[in-house]
Amino acid sequence: MIGAVKKANSAVMTLIKFMLILTGTTMTVLVIMNVILRYVFSSGLTWSEEAARFLFIWTTFLGAILANDSGLHGEHMRMDFVAEKFTGIPRKIIEELAMLIVLAVLVGLFFGSLQLVKSTWAMPTSALKLPKGGVYMCAPICFGYMTLQTVARMINIAKATDDQLNHKEAE
What Cα–Cα distance (Å) separates residue 139 from each residue in 36, 84, 134? Predict the structure, then answer.
């Protein structure tokens, strides 16, 4: 079961990496193309700025999922100077409490972003005429997946040995 979850997560991370390359490249091409059109031909694409902004939003949220995915400690910056002072069971308790706080924030952000998507779905964007809720859909996707990652990390912390908790995998 755990092997299947790891394989599924690996597939999702590969998809996210591909999407990040695609959105980053598309965003760059749109911005450069619009700059050339404006300064060389004195005309630009009215929709390209809006498209680049929406791609940037999606890139940011997808990047957050990717950064949050790595190992027991994750890649996001964290202040662990208190947890580092402890070992064994007290260290696990502190790590789990920290993850519970992260989990509570992520769940709150998930439900808040669902409300945002729901309340803005009928509003079209100005240039592309896309539903604004579709643009904001990246938030509940991000916070929902990061919630699952946090739960998985909490399970890993509960199963971890003292050595695994005291040393990051990358070190």
Answer: 32, 32, 10
**138 contacts 145 by C-beta, under 8 angstroms:** no
d(CA 11, CA 157): 23
Say what the pLDDT of residue 74 is.
55
Query: Are 75 and 68 in contact, with CB atoms under 8 Å apart?
Result: yes
pLDDT band at 162 (very low <50, low <70, confident <90, very high): confident
How high is the pLDDT of residue 96?
Answer: 93
Amino acid code (one letter) for 105: V
Amino acid at 15: L
Cβ burial of 160 (10 Å; 0-12, 13-18, 19+) is middle
Percent of the chain with pLDDT over 90: 66
- Copy the structure tokens of residue 57: 């939003």
